[in-house]
Design brief:
This protein is an all-alpha fold and about 80 residues long. The N and C termini lie far apart (about 50 Å). α1 runs antiparallel to α2 and α2 runs antiparallel to α3.
Length: about 80
Amino acid sequence: MPNTKSAERRMRNSQRKNLQNSAVKSRLRRAEREFRAAVTAGKKDEAAKLLPGVHSAFDKAVKVGAIVRGTANRKKSRLSLSLKK
């Protein structure tokens, strides 16, 4: 347990941020899973429509600090390559 008021405040803030970040990451995983499912099913036109939404979700996650920019760029690149294959 925290010993000082500032430590209590930091604990509350970190819990709130943890919840927010986990929600963002869950949304990312869901979007990526839907995209990959469309690609593996051979629905290229549907996957092509989903790709901008997935890219946008990664960019928003970077903006709020849930993931690092390099990670987002790497995943966006690999998703784009999987669509082209």
